[in-house]
Amino acid sequence: MEPSELEAQKEKNSNLSIALIFVNLILLVIFAFSGGEDENGVGLCVLGIGLIFLLGCYAFSYHGKGYRLGKWLFGIALVIGIISFGFLWYVWQLGKGFNH
Fold this sequence. Notes:
Blueprint: H1 3-32, H2 40-61, H3 68-97
Helix pairs in contact: 1-2, 2-3
């Protein structure tokens, strides 16, 4: 294969991967909010972890300057996920203090 054909195939695969990520995110949203009122917190956790996982798979699958946006999105999602987890852990520990 010539380099131009290889780049075209890589671009096609990248676009297909992005489309599959969006389809999986839509399925995760449907799954996250199908449990009812009581399970919305769990669904949001599943949605967040799924988003981080899918973006991480994309970011580390494709290498090169053209795929830098995927790595930035993964980094931003990871930082937001860690901050959210830390905040939820803090609130949970604070709730245990007011238990008695």
